[in-house]
């Protein structure tokens, strides 16, 4: 079985469902910059433009999850779990008006898990594969 790079808690799934009902398909991006750069940001799908400086890590609850390539260099040995907590973040993420914010919980992969990692795609590879399917 492949090791997933990003997971999601049931609480975060419930928040995603609320946001999807209002905004349609969603995506996540985690940068290493300012404005809660350590928090995953939720956008309407396609609202955040990804490219070669981004990495696609997989999907959570039907949403693509991207990270900046520079941030991925630091976190490539870490399994991420998207969770949600009460409180208002300082970002442009869609959940902010709900009075909650997404956050990342992380742990290092075990040696065994590292042998079975899911592949990642850079943003341009991801876009090319998506275009092929359409």
CATH topological fold name: Hypothetical Protein Aq_1857, Chain: A
Count of extended strands: 8
* CATH class division: Mainly Beta
Indicate the structural class: alpha/beta
Mean pLDDT over the residues: 91
Shape-level CATH architecture: Sandwich
How can the largest sheet be summarized? 5 strands, mixed
Taking all Cα atoms into account, the compactness measure Rg is: 14 Å
DSSP helix fraction:
25-40%
The low-confidence parts are none
Residue share in β-strands = 25-35%
Q: What count of structural domains?
A: 1
**Helical run tally:** 4
- The 3D shape can be described as globular
User: Which strand order spans the largest sheet, edge to edge or round the barrel?
Assistant: 3-2-5-4-8
Pfam families: DUF779
Protein name: UDP-glucose 4-epimerase
Please describe the structure with a list of short key phrases separated by commas or semicolons.
single chain, DUF779, 5-stranded mixed β-sheet, Hypothetical Protein Aq_1857, Chain: A, UDP-glucose 4-epimerase, alpha/beta, 3-stranded mixed β-sheet, globular, 134 residues, 8 strands
């Amino acid at each position: 079985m492949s090791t997933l790079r990003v997971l999601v808690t049931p609480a975060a799934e419930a928040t995603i469902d609320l946001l999807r009902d209002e905004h349609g398909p969603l995506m996540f991006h985690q940068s290493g910059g300012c404005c809660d750069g350590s928090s995953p940001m939720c956008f309407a799908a396609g609202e955040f433009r990804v490219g070669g400086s981004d990495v696609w890590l997989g999907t959570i609850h039907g949403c693509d999850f991207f990270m900046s390539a520079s941030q991925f260099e630091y976190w490539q040995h870490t399994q991420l779990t998207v969770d949600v907590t009460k409180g208002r973040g300082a970002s442009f993420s869609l959940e902010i008006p709900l009075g909650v914010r997404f956050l990342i919980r992380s742990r290092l992969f075990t040696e065994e898990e590292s042998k079975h990692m899911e592949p990642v795609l850079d943003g341009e590879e991801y876009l090319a594969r998506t275009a092929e399917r359409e």
